[in-house]
Write a structure and sequence with these properties.
alpha/beta, 4-stranded parallel sheet, Glutathione S-transferase Yfyf (Class Pi), Chain A, domain 2, single chain, Rossmann fold, 288 residues
């Protein structure tokens, strides 16, 4: 099984261990990743120049189509952005023709043959939970996980087609495959606050704090994320603001990326999973 790997912009700069852990896990599960010179998914300019957003996304699809590959991305923002662009191109013939005229300058064409999938979707639908369970060497039984979905993959449902936006189960099922227990927590579908970081920091921290409290109250040992923004918020931002967070009970909570959790339970090396790159120590996982 082969996919074009789409790391996006933030992962290579902020979360290199998300990429390394994803690659290690997928390689161990017989998924071949092909590296292609993709560009930005278009999300950062979506609110400023809609056409440029669509063109950027369409160019990536066209490149993948040229290699006859579907796209796999660990970034839920990129996943949502590319899904939206695909939707708009299919619904608007005038927009599609305009985009095609620009792509032709690079001998590219968007035909809608390539699909974008998120890491969790590939693990669930293409690899399968049963196969994952057969690869588990060190089940992390007794570890309680608060799975945080993030926003971009769940909504709007008719465009992203990721899971039930109100009652998703894909993340909990994948956590369960590692031997860990997913806790039921009230804030699991709420925004982590990271999109507001740098714009309204008090509100960003308040949203994160509410999620931390909810996870603690549910008895979680760790947060688990599969969203670039969520992991940056729960790890880097939380770590930088510990003095502020400690003023409020119950204090900080470490966050582990899902491929780190899965890779650890599969017996993969801590170095290739980048476990030492997490800013807040994930000792609960290492002791599991």
């Amino acid at each position: 099984m082969k996919f074009a790997f789409f790391a996006g912009c933030k992962i290579p700069y902020y979360l290199k261990h998300y990429e390394s852990a994803s690659r290690a896990v997928l390689r161990a599960l017989d998924i071949e990743l092909v590296d292609i010179e993709f560009t930005c998914c278009g999300y950062p300019i979506r609110s400023y120049d809609f056409f440029s957003f669509i063109l950027s996304a369409a160019r990536n699809f066209a490149i993948a189509e040229k290699h006859d590959l579907n796209i796999l991305t660990p970034c839920k923002c990129c996943f949502g952005s590319l899904k939206h662009a695909d939707h708009f191109l299919r619904k608007n013939d005038k927009l599609k023709k305009h985009i095609q005229s620009f792509l032709q300058e690079e001998d590219l064409i968007w035909e809608g043959r390539s699909e974008v999938k998120h890491l969790l979707t590939v693990l669930t639908d293409d690899v399968g939970i049963d196969k994952i369970r057969t690869r588990i060497k060190h089940p992390v039984k007794g570890l309680k996980i608060a799975a945080s979905y993030g926003c971009h993959a769940l909504r709007p449902d008719d465009i992203v087609n990721f899971d039930n936006p109100l009652a998703p189960t894909i993340f909990e099922n994948l956590v369960g495959a590692t031997g860990a227990e997913s806790v039921d927590w009230s804030k699991r579908l709420d925004c982590c606050g990271n999109p507001l970081w740098g714009k309204n920091n008090p509100l960003s921290l308040d949203l994160m704090q509410k999620k931390l409290v909810s996870a603690h109250q549910a008895g979680a040992d760790l947060l688990c994320s599969s969203c670039t923004y969520c992991q940056i918020q729960f790890d880097s931002v939380q770590n930088s603001e510990l003095s502020q967070i400690k003023k409020n009970d119950p204090g900080p909570m470490p966050s582990v990326l899902y491929p780190q959790l899965l890779g650890f339970s599969m017996g993969l090396g801590e170095k290739q999973l980048g476990l030492d790159a997490n800013e807040i120590e994930i000792s609960a996982l290492l002791k599991a």
